[in-house]
Amino acid sequence: MELGATPMTAFLILVCLSAVLRGHLSALVSSPLIDSEPAQVVVFEGEGGGLKLNYYSKSCPLAEEIVKREVVKLYNEHGNTAVSWVRNLFHDCIVESCDASLLLETTDAVISEQSADRSFGMRNFKYVATIKEALEKECPVTVSCADIVALSAREGVVMLGGPFIPMRTGRRDSKESHADVIDKDIPNHNDSISLVLSRFRSIGIDAERTVALLGAHSVGRVHCVNLVGRLYPTVDPTIDPEYAKYLLGRCPSPNPDPEAVLYSRNDRETPMIIDNMYYKNLLHHKGLLKVDQQLVSYPSTAQFVKLMAADNSYFYDQFSKALLLLSENNPLTGNKGEVRKDCRYVNAG
User: Fold this and answer.
1) Which residues are catalytic?
2) d(CA 80, CA 313)
3) What is the per-residue pLDDT across 298-339, written as a single tens digit (0 to 9) for each?
4) Fewest CB atoms less than 10 Å from the CB: which of 19, 163, 304, 313?
5) Alpha helix locations (H) across 160-311?
């Protein structure tokens, strides 16, 4: 996880929820993932860049419920889709705008962002079409692909045991790819933490919330292609020795086949739950990527790692704020862009 936008307005927690969101929450209580207690709900208020809550309340009243239904259905059939939705939001929104440019496939006129090195390992794009088709049946050419990216990420977080985050909608879709600026906009996992912090700061996300956003690394997996730099020719001394043995077992060659299924889980304890185990692992020198482990040693981030490791509710609060800020980065609204009929291609004409 990540635009050349100006810093965004900070968000305040509302005292209470709207009736619509209360209804959405009541539905979440029966989520098949969580038997004990419902996901925490955090609501924010701010300018939103032209976005608003319940944007489709008149034009497509069931839009958000349809997205939720399809995400749950896909999760039950393909559990890793929930991780893909969260990653899609990051890769789409940090590159120029939350405008679904990530979803465009290569054509004579478009070079897809999916073909970039920074997109290595991303998958499940085909299931975005499943969500879009369900929405098109209900409300043709109404709900944007950019809002599908945002709403599916929100529901994906819930399916992964994280907090429910009310999101404003009203984004429109880009008519172009931003493949030419991906390397500039998305930090590399081997970059210095100071560079990573600078990149997020440029879109209004401070150090505390950057640390929280990287907590998304608590789910999913990392291909050995992105791990061997810490293992060969010698093991990174910041890695716990026993953990290093595990990683070497998962990645036995310094030249892994990028097409092979060679990977390590980000979090071996709770691999499919977004929680603060990620930070506990960092404190025990079990960070998977270089950018992860640097959070512990860098002065402006170390304090937040300790706080989030000690308090999962605090992590959820900051993660919610960070994801909301990311989801509202420089959106296209009003008459800008379009609402694509097929998320893979710009509309004809």
Assistant:
1) 91
2) 24
3) 999 999 999 999 999 999 999 999 999 999 999 999 999 999
4) 19
5) 182-185, 193-201, 207-213, 241-250, 277-283, 290-297, 299-310
